[in-house]
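Typical record was shown:
=====
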Amino acid sequence: MLKKTSRFLAILIVPLIGSLLIRLLYLTNKKIFYAPESLGDEKFIMACWHGELLMIPYAYTRYRKNPHVKLLISEHFDGNLIAKTLNFFGFATIRGSSTRGGAKALIESIKEIKNGYDLGITPDGPKGPRHEIHDGIVIMAQKAKVKIVLVEIKPSKYWQLKSWDKFVIPKPFGTINYYISDLIDVGDKSLQEAKSILKEGLKKHE
């Protein structure tokens, strides 16, 4: 009962505080975007490592002033907190991952892209291994016939958690560097070739 109560309170409080914290950290940092001027109007999949997820809303809204995106978030309790936090930025979610609800989430993601949504994904989530690309992002891109945008988020000053993904939280009054790729087409690539391209692209600025 105590666990249920604490989780209920966490769901009520943590997402609101988290969304305010994200906004505060963004406002108190200098931002530098190494990024294309435009990504056009075609739908895309935006991907970043799980450990760099916190500040991803501002990479997306640079190109879509009115968010029309669904983020693939795990069905774990932590995923629930993330999903509700991102709801404050106008982002919808698809629940599932490679380990829980995987096939259902894959099918739904492809359907939503075809329905006109962009998709956001952490290709090494929800439980790792850290910085290893799972198959799902390539399958989604190829089946839905869309391209992929890679995002690296590198703050100059940060806290780093001791979690599996070494989750990064920018400190105030530093610089957040956003490295955003051009659209990447993996439609004619083998699974392994595509995964190698994406992994290399997400590790360019480590």
